Amino acid sequence: MSVTDWRPDATLDMLRLRARVLQTTRSFFLARGVLEVETPILSHACASDRHIESLQSRVAGAAAFLNTSPEFTMKRLLAAYAEPMFQICKVFREDELGPWHNPEFSMLEWYRPGLDLGALMDEVQQLITVLDTRHAPEFTRLTYRDAFERAVGFNPHQVTAAECRACAQAHAIDCPVGLNDDVDEWLDWLLTQLVLPALPKHSYTFIYEYPATQCALAKISRNPAGDAVAQRFELVYGELELANGYDELQDAAEQVARFQADNAARLALGQAPAVIDQHLLAALAHGLPETCGVALGLDRLLMVLCGAQCIEEVLTFSWQKA
Amino acid sequence: MATYSTNEFKNGLKIMLDGYPCTITENILVKPGKGQAFNRVKMRNLKTGRTLEKTFKTTESVEAADIEERNVDFLYSDGEHWHLMEPETFEQYAADAVAMGDAAKWLKGQEACVLMLWNGQPLSVSTPNFVELAVTETDPGLKGDTAQGGSKLAILETGAEIKVPLFIEIGDVLKVDTRTGEYVSRA
Questions:
Q1: What number is the average pLDDT over the span B50-69?
Q2: Nearest to B66 by CA among B27, B96, B25, B21
Q3: Structural fold of domain A12-138+200-321
């Protein structure tokens, strides 16, 4: 790209659409008594997720990390004040660059103490209905298991890696180099290649009850069918993921165990272990109220609102021009 | 053995796949938010010219292909090998018919070409996009027929056979597009 290509990626209409979405979102939460907060983007600690890499910086000679989400600091606010709250901020993820990914993106994250996961899905739906003024948007809710059973005909909570590979071969999709006996990695691959593409193209779908092994920071329970499931949902539009919500884990000891498991997996993959957020662990030990929370990618939502195929179309300046 | 990690993938990177050197032509990230990332990669096999698609789990490493490109002049063919020389260093290379591929039929001598080396051995030769070659054989020209469609075969001085308009005669020098093998104009 030429260095003299100084113009923004966004058209003036796109800037106006982004401004409208931001203003409408703030009005939506103001009317519901949800407090807008601001927490640090730069932290001493980082996310431990084995599939999310934090960008690293330095402050006064010591390692510092850019937020991959404002989750840890917002949970500390919840432990201190137990207020419903939202934040709109920039978050950063190393190596995420592609048609649907930019290493810096805008996130709307909010927490609703006292609401259960179904009620939080209701609120996500209400917010999107206010923002998506193209037509009356349609929403469906499906368990992760139902989504798989419909698309590929098996129960993802009981499947083996060998059965996943056979499924990929039967559907004539690629079997990625390096995918071996990790069932969750296979499920991620089949989800993106077969399950999400089978969902309705022009409407919103909530997928909930993720496998317990993909719980991240959500509580785990058993569903009526006896599957161990994470109390977690994702919202997609067609195949495009927009939001990820949890019934938030409150147990400090369980949180420590998950951090340690993440770091063990990172070490096994030759990745640097995450710097564990001791402030979060102390806040959980103090007590996090029962709460659900959700993070929504605002740039992805803008893609839906204007029919963009590529995230660059909605960004003011994409990474190539930043 | 040099390797590349998937996060170094970009267009033009040369990697080994199933024993063949390939060049990456497209690299797309596929990633569920909290899940495993994948690189869906389109490549061209530099030996066969075929395009192929392959997906890699992100964090996989692949072997780098030892590929170098050299600007060379075509000198002559002895029937078995095509001899090429780097004009600055006078380094000479002999490419066989497989490495030459289609390039062989467009070269008569002194053309500037690009030679691709794999592990130091000639892998392929790219000719200039346009060459000028004389017609050695074709049916007699049809006078005055310059506007009408219709074509006939002509054999060029290198032995290449191409379709030409009906008015072309033996001895005419033609401009040919080597990428499509098509007649462009009289030179």
A1: 94
A2: B21
A3: BirA Bifunctional Protein; domain 2 (3.30.930)
